Each structure stands twice: as structure tokens, then as C-alpha cells.
Amino acid sequence: MSILVDTNTRLIVQGLGEAGAFHTDKSIAYGTNVVGAVRPGKGGQSVRFEGETDRSGVPGRPDRYQVDVPSFDTVREAVEATGANATVIFVPPPFAADAIMEAAEAGIPLIVTITEGIPIQDMVKVKRYLEGKPVRLVGPNCPGVITPHQCKIGIMPGYIHQAGRIGVVSRSGTLTYEAVKQLTDNGLGQTAAVGIGGDPVNGTSFIDVLKLYNDDPATEGVIMIGEIGGTAEEEAAAWIAENMTKPVAAFIAGTTAPPGKRMGHAGAIISGGMGTAADKIAALQAAGVVVADTPSDMGSAMLEAMKRAGKA
Amino acid sequence: MKIHEYQAKELMKQHGIAVPIGRVATTVEEAVAAVRPIVEASGNAVVVVKSQIHAGGRGKGRFVEHPDVPGVNVVTDGLKGGVEATERRVRELAEKMLGSTLVTVQTGPEGKQVNRLYVEQGIDIERELYLSVVLDRATGRNVVMASTEGGMEIEEVAAETPEKILRETIDPAVGLLDFQVRRLAFGLGLAGAAHKNGARFVKALAGLAVGLDTDMVEINPLVVTKSGDVMALDGKMSFDGNALFRHGDVTGMRDLSEEDAAEVEASEYGLSFIKLDGSIGCLVNGAGLAMATMDTIKQVGGEPANFLDVGGGATTENVTAAFKIITRDPNVKGIFINIFGGIMKCDTIANGVVAAVQQVGLEVPLVVRLEGTNVELGRKIIDESGLNVVSATDMKDGARKIVELTGGVQ
Q: Which chain A residues have a beta carbon less than 8 Å from that of B56?
């Protein structure tokens, strides 16, 4: 079992620039089924990806891969021709909102947006446009989604992942990698890892992913990684207290962040006394979540949460 | 990106929003010269001289060099002495204010130098209100907030009398609707001409906020005059940095002298840098990891000197620049480099650090923790460089080592 992506995922890529091409290649090496690319004006061409297979990815493949990815002018054409059920967006910030809405209009059920720096007002419009449509946006400004040894969409290093028992959900890219590696090292492994992104307006929330993990039979516990800014962690804590049937561990970054300063991520800011790490940690602890003191303790916090639940 | 009050008022005026008549001055002579046209145009002998800095609390703020002078001064000399008296008083004030250091609750004790004054017409205030447009992150929509408690901090109102804050959410599909505007105007107790003027003000401000991609627009106070006009007596605006590419006129309003020089320099190299007060410099990839590195240093008894995210696409040159910015801070007694390579490759970081040390030298202890993409290659580059570097196995280990090397727990 898995959430969001697996070996049946058929991925298209929007934005095959330098970064898009680099990470598309890594995804194909991992074993992700990339079926097309949207490159307005270059429909009918194809782009070849070839190299050495990533052995940490989908098992049972030859040592080398060679894939010719067909290009399409529009998302709708790409979907009709390939039966794509997921897209990953690397389109530059000024045009990314349009790319997301084009994917939504074409009915792609999973839209993973990696792009960092999309204007907030663009995302306000995007969020409104997505209302009522049967699509899920992950991101923007996120590392993507991975189900170990099945499908990797995004920019995370594949080799640190190991199929296992824990669902990972995070607002931060590099902290996701920290958590994933520790879960690989301590043997718990991951059912999936989802980056929801560091922007103030995003698609999928902590609660959305917690629900998916709660309903996924393979996921036995969840680790969530939050940071200062907004109240998404507090809302997640309230949902966990009411609904979560599985042990949860967490880490919140930014206990030392000064108020009023944006800490790298557009959404990571304490304003008007709201969004402090202390408030988030208190809310999560009150909901029975084991909160790690430092990011180096995320794996052991998860283990502790599993032990308390009699699962380790 | 923040702008000055006078710039915010200029933008409001362009959007048909009522603001008092005013002129900006960077010299004493300009300030004096502003008086006559303002008095003549407004028909009011009273003017106000306001310090222009990117920080609030100016009215209650005081100058380091002239503790008797507040950051904002109402000049009433003209009521008896005519416009010449006003000019004399404005000259006295401008001489003291320009170039002096204003300390307010928001500037910190070091204060900020005042390089610009805004001379503005006096207003016969009947009521002071509050109005702002901000993003509500919980819904992903913009919200207009209004309150009858003008002049008070909105956080204070929210804490003490939350029922006095009116909110209308803007649906991005249709914008702020007329009935919402009416609801706000009635809620603020505006009647007659003031109702009409207030409604027009609210609608125009909401349009400005969305159209110019503001992070925040705050009018505090929004004043109702004795004649029923509704005007922005103050105006605070900041903009979404990611949207500046489509607002060249706003970008031109950036005042680099109001920003931290090191932060500006860092941003030119694509680095996200924030200076802090501690002694341990940090160089990290990823915003979350950079914050968490600061937290971990604090957790083991140290104090971080900065937040620094080199980003995912950093080159050797960017890393070198980052290293130089960190080592330039005289408070830095040691450096902790913490990398989990994803997009960022460990060998790129290693090359950048080696290049920087060769250029600027290394006089403080350096602890390096590398993990992720090309980690073996990165470690090899550091080992073979002959640099005096302490390796760490994980983030906590690295934080402990740098704290020990810089004199232990503080």
C-alpha cells in the first residue's frame, strides 16, 4: 500500500528547463514512469533520457535505462495521448500558477509543484480555481512526493529512502531528508514522504496528508515536520487529538527565530505574536504527539511514539 | 519589501485613495520650502513633520541626539504667527531631525537614522479608525480588517476586545463586493458623506492590495475629518518580493539604506541571510534545516550568529560569498557548516568552503557536517585541502563540537 503515488503512476513534466530536466532524469533513473512533457511550441518532439539505473528505486530493472519522453503543446493533449494521472511542475514562478491551473483544467488528479517563489496572490487565485475540482495540489515550494521503491516525483535524493512503516509529511525539504534518513537508519522505514511546501498558501495541508496516512493500512505511524508561521500545525494538532488512530511524532523548526523576519521560506515568519514554535510544540504535545528536541532526534522520537503505542 | 509612508501615500493617491497633502524632504531647505504650498493648498495653518523610516512607533519615538524631539511633530505656530512662523519652526525641527537617530519600540535600542522627512497638512480629526488588508493563511484568501479603535496596535485590540475587529474575506473570483464594503462602513459607524467616502476608500484600498501584490497594507489611523472626508493619516505597506517582477514602479521605491547591508549583499548571491546576536556562524542548505541548525546550537548551549540558507542551486561562488559574509561578523567565534545534500551537492559546498578559506583565511574553528548527494566526494575535498576542519557525524554532534570549540556552554 502507499499514498498518492505508486507503480501505476503515469507522470508528465511541466517545465523541462535545466532543473526540470535534471530531476526528470533522476526520477526516471529511480523507476518513475514518465510518459510525457508539456513544452508549448515543441509538441511532437521528444527528449531522450538515458543513464545508469538507480538501484535504490524500483527493483527488477536492467542496469541502464533509455527513455524517449514525448512533448506536447498543452496539458490536455498530453493527458489524452498518455493517460497521465500525475504531473510535476518546474515552471518558473511567473508562469507557474497558470501551469497549475492548466493541469487542473485537464483533470490531472495529482499536481506536484516544486517551483519556489510563486507570488502569493497567484496562489490565492489558484486555490480558488481548484475548489470543487477533483484534483490535489501538493506544494508549491516543496521537494515532492515519494513512495520508496515505487515512484519518486520531485527533487529528493532517492537513495536515503527505505520502504517501511512510517508516513512522513513536512513543510521543509532538507528536514524531510533528515527524518527519512533517520527512519531508514533505525529500521522503521517509510510508507511515503510528502513535502507540502514552505509557502503561506499551498494546496495539500498537514491534515490532508494525516488523513491519507490514517486510512492507509500500511502506515503504522506518522512523523510531521513543521516550522514557524501560520497555524497549520495547531490545526493539525487539533485534528490528531480528535481523529488520529496512529502514533505521531513531530519536529518544529524555528524556536530561535526572531519575530518579524522571514526565515528563508515565504511562509516561515512570526507576525503579531502568531506562529511561534513554542505554541505549535505545546499544541502538538497536548494532542499526545512526541515532539523531538532537535532534528537529530526525529527518528528516536518516532521510535518512542511507536513504543508508547505498543508498536515497537 | 517595505516602503516609506510617503511612498505608500503616493501609491494610494495614484489609486484614487484620499491622503493628506504632503511633500517629502531630504534637506532642511526642502522641508521649509514644502510649508507654503501645503498651507496654501490645504487652507490649514497647521502642518505635521514626520520622520520617514521603515519602522513603526515614530510618534512616541525620540531622537538620540535630541531626546526632547519626538519622531513626529505637529507644528501649530502658524495659527498665530502665519506661514513664516511655521517655516521657522519647521526649519528648527528639520535641523534636529535630519541625520539624527530615531529610537522607537520597533527600531531596537540602536535606532535608525532619519534621512527623509514628510511634511504634511494638519487634519481636523473627528474619529480615528483602523483598516488593513492582509492574507488569511488559514483560508488562503485576503481579508479586510477594520476597527473603530484607530491608533491602537491591532494585536492589542485582538487580545483585549476581539469583537471590535470587523472582517470581510475577499473572494478572488469576484473581489470585495459592495455589500461587504457597506457592512464594514456601517460596522465602523460611518454615516452620510463619511459613509460614502469610507466605502470608496475601503474598496479602492482592497483593489490596491491585490493589484500591487502587497504582503500587508495597514492604515492606522484612518481618520474621519470634521467635514466628512475619510483619509489615510498613516500608511504602512510591504510587498511580496516574489511579485516585484511585475511592479517596476514599486521596485523603484526600495530604500536599501533601510535594510541590513549584509542581508542585501547575501540576497544578491541568492542567499537567504539574517543576522542574529550570537557567536556561532551557520552555513546551511534549506530554510527548514537552517532554522533547525540555529535551534540545535541553542539547545546545546550556544548562540547562533545568523540564519543562512545557501539554497538548492548554489554554486561554489555563492558558497564562497556566504562564507565571507559570515566571517566578516566580528562576533563570530566559530562556524558550523551543516549540509544535507539533495539538489545541493556536497562537493559543491566543499569546493566553495575551500576556495573561501584560501581567499579570506580561517581564524576561527570550523565544524563541518556533510550528508546526502556526493557526500564521499565532499568529505574527500575537505580532507585533502589540509584545512583545520572538525568533522561531525550528525547535526547535534556538530552543534556540540562547535559550542565546545568556541568556549563551551554560555
A: none
